[in-house]
Amino acid sequence: MNQQTGVNFGASIKDAVIAGLLALIVFGPIVGVLLDGYDFSARPGDLATIVAVVMFGRFVISIFVQSDVGRKFLYRHAMKEDGVTVTAPDYKSKMYYILPIVIVIGLLVPFVATKYILTVVILGLIYVLLGLGLNIVVGLAGLLDLGFVGFYAIGAYGLALGYEYLGLGFWSMLPIAAVMAAIAGAILGFPVLRMHGDYLAIVTLGFGEIIRLVLTNWTEFTHGPNGVSAPLPTLFGLEFQRRSREGTPFHEFFGLPFDSAYKYMFVYLILFVVVLAVLYVKHRLTRMPIGRAWEALREDEIACRSLGLNHVLVKLSAFMLGASTGGIAGVFFATYQGFVNPSSFTFFESALILAIVVLGGMGSTLGVVIAAFVLTVMPEMLREFADYRVLMFGILMVVMMIWKPRGLVRVTRKGFATRKGAVK
Amino acid sequence: MSQENILEVENLVMHFGGIKALNDVTFNIKRGSVSALIGPNGAGKTTVFNCLTGFYKATGGSILLNAGNKQTSVVKVLGEKFKGSDFINPAAFAERVKYKMFGGSHLVNRAGLARTFQNIRLFKEMSVIENLLVAQHMSVQRSMISGILNTASFKNSEEAALRKAFYWLEVVHLTEFANRLAGELSYGQQRRLEIARSMCTNPEIICLDEPAAGLNPSETEALASMIRVLRDEHNTTVLLIEHDMGMVMNISDYIVVLDHGEVIAKGGPDDIKSNPKVIAAYLGAEEGEEVSL
C-alpha cells in the first residue's frame, strides 16, 4: 500500500459537514417538528443533538479509516471472498465440538432462565424452524416463496381447530399438521411450479393472503378475528393447568407447587428436541440425492431436465418438505401462545422469515439458526426502541448487503476423497 | 422396431409462428455410429437437437428412439393434444393424461438419450463431483428414510455413484479437479465435464451440441479421441453438431447436412465433401469451384 499515511483532517471535516447536512434533511421533518393537534411546535434542540451526533460519528469514522488500523480493517473486508467453498475431503467441522456444548446449554436453559427469557427463546426456536423450512424452498431449491406464512397458519389453526372440533391434542396434531401443510404445499405447488421467479413469488404471495383472508372471514368455522384457543401439550396425559378437567395435573402428580413456568419449560424442551431433529434431517438432506437435485434445480433447470430429473416433482418435494416444517412451527406457535388469530399471519411474517433466510445465507443451516435468533431476540432486547424497530431492521439489511451480500455464514460444500473409478 | 437404427427421424417439422425452422427433416442414425449434423449458421441444427431431446415439441413428424430394448416416441412422451379417439379408448386417454401431467424432456433422457448444450450448462456453484452425482439421480438409492438414517444400502449406493463419477472424471482427465466448483473450471474443462455428466446417465445415444466450440487444436484432437472412446468402449452412439470440418470429417461415419431447415445431403464424409449442393450451401459458390475441407 503506497497511499499517504498521515491523517487528512480537512477531508474528515468535509465528510462530517456533508453527513450533518444529510442528517438535517432526513431528521428535520421527523424530529424537528412536533405535531400538536392542528398546530405544531419546532424542536430545534433535539434536531441539533441528532445532527451533532451524526457529524461527530462521521468525523470519528473518517479519522479511523485513515489510520493504519482502519486501513487494514477496510482492506480485510474488501478482500472478503464470499463465494461457495468446497472443503477438503478430510475436513472436520468445528461443529463436532460446538454442537454437544450447545445441546447441553440448550437443555439447561429452562431450569436457569426466567419465564420471560424462556418465552423469548421459544419464539426464537419457532423462527429457527420457519427459517429452516423456507431455507429448503428458497435457499436450496431457489423458488422464491412469499406466502410461507400460509403453511405456518395451517399448522397453528390445525392445532386450535383440531382440538375444538375433533378433540385432537398436541401430540396427534404435530404429525397431522405437518402432513396437512405438506398437502397444502402440494395443492398450491402442482399448478404453479411450472412458473419461474417473479411469477411464482406473486402467486405464493397471493396464497398466503388467501389463507389469512379465509381464516378472517369464515367466521362460523374459524371464529374469524376473535381467534381460537389452542391446547397445551401433555406429558403422558398429565396436564399443565392449575386444575385439570380429567385426571391429575402435572404439579399435583409430582407433588410440586403450581408454577405457570412449567408449561413453558415443557414446550421449550419438546421444541428444542424437534429443532435438533429438523436440523439433523436438514443436514442429511443436503447430502442425499434429493438435496443435490434441489440445488441442481436452483443452478440450472434445463440441465436438470436433460439429466432425467423430473423438475416438477423435484420442486414439489422441496415445497412439501418446506411447508411441513412450517406446519410444525405453527403447531408450536399455537400451543405456546395458547391462542391464535389471523393477525399473527400477515405478510410481514413472510417477509421476516425470508429476511432470516437471506440474512443467514441462502442454503446455510447455521446461518439460518443465527439469523433467526438475531431477528427475533433483538427486537425483544430493544423494547425501549420499539418505535425504531423497522428502521433498525432496514439498517441491518443495508449493512449486511454491503458487507456480507451472500449472508452471515459462507456456504461450504462437502469434498470427496479421490477413489478408484469403476462402472458397474 | 428396427435394431439397426437407434434413432429414426421422419418428416420432422417445426414451426415457430410463421417461421418454418424445420421442413420435412428425415434421417436415421445407425447404432454404434458417430454421426454429425452440419450446416451453415441458422440452418436449424440446434432446433433438430432440441426436438430430438424433447426441449421443443415438434409441430409434426415422428421421432422414434430404439433404446433400452423398447421404442420410445419422443413426441408422445412430451404430452400430445387429446384426439377424438381417446374418448372412446380409456387406456389411450389415461396414457395421454399421464404424459400431459408428468411428461417432459426428462423422459427422453430416461429412455436413453443424453445431450450437452451449445452454451455450457453446468451446476456452477456445485462441485465437479456433485455435478456427476446429480446426473446419477435416477440410479441411486433415493429413499428418504434410508438417506436420513444413513443406512448401509444408502452408503453402498452413494459409494457406487462416487466410483462411477470418478471413473468418468478419469476418462475426461478431470480427476484432480473433483473438489473444485464447476464454475471455476476453464472453458475446455467445462466442456469435458458436461460430456462426463451426460454419460453418467447411462445413455445409449449422446447428442453433443458443438463440443469443439472454443477449444484449441490440441483440445479438439483430445475431444475426438474421447468421442471414439465413448463409441468403442461404451457402445454409445454419438450424434454431434460441429463447425470444425476437420474434426467432423475425421471422426464421423455418417453426415447429415441441413440448410434452411431442409436436409440437403446425407452420406459418408467422402460423399459429402464432393457434394455440389453442400459446397454451394457453405460457400454460396458456383458449382465446380474447389472447396478445401
TrEMBL record, chain A:
InterPro entries: ABC_transp_permease, LivHM_N, LivM-like. Its main location: membrane. One of its GO terms (cellular component) is plasma membrane. One of its GO terms (molecular function) is branched-chain amino acid transmembrane transporter activity. Keywords: Cell membrane, Membrane, Transmembrane, Transmembrane helix. Residues 12-108 form the High-affinity branched-chain amino acid transport system permease LivHM N-terminal domain. The chain crosses the membrane at residues 16-35, 47-65, 95-113, 120-153, 165-190, 197-215, 261-281, 316-339, 351-374, 386-403. It is found in: Cell inner membrane. CDD domains: TM_PBP1_LivM_like. It is a multi-pass membrane protein. PANTHER family: HIGH-AFFINITY BRANCHED-CHAIN AMINO ACID TRANSPORT SYSTEM PERMEASE (PTHR30482), HIGH-AFFINITY BRANCHED-CHAIN AMINO ACID TRANSPORT SYSTEM PERMEASE PROTEIN LIVM (PTHR30482:SF20). This is Amino acid/amide ABC transporter membrane protein 2, HAAT family (TC 3.A.1.4.-). It comes from Marinomonas fungiae. The lineage of its organism: Bacteria, Pseudomonadati, Pseudomonadota, Gammaproteobacteria, Oceanospirillales.
From TrEMBL, chain B:
GO terms for cellular component: plasma membrane. SUPFAM superfamilies: P-loop containing nucleoside triphosphate hydrolases (SSF52540). GO terms for molecular function: ATP binding; ATP hydrolysis activity; L-isoleucine transmembrane transporter activity; L-phenylalanine transmembrane transporter activity; L-valine transmembrane transporter activity. The lineage of its organism: Bacteria, Pseudomonadati, Pseudomonadota, Gammaproteobacteria, Oceanospirillales. GO terms for biological process: D-alanine transmembrane transport; L-alanine transport; L-isoleucine import across plasma membrane; L-valine import across plasma membrane. This is Amino acid/amide ABC transporter ATP-binding protein 1, HAAT family (TC 3.A.1.4.-). Residues 7-285 form the ABC transporter domain. It holds the Pfam family ABC_tran. Keywords: Amino-acid transport, ATP-binding, Nucleotide-binding, Transport. Belongs to the ABC transporter superfamily. SMART domains: AAA (SM00382). The keyword ATP-binding applies.
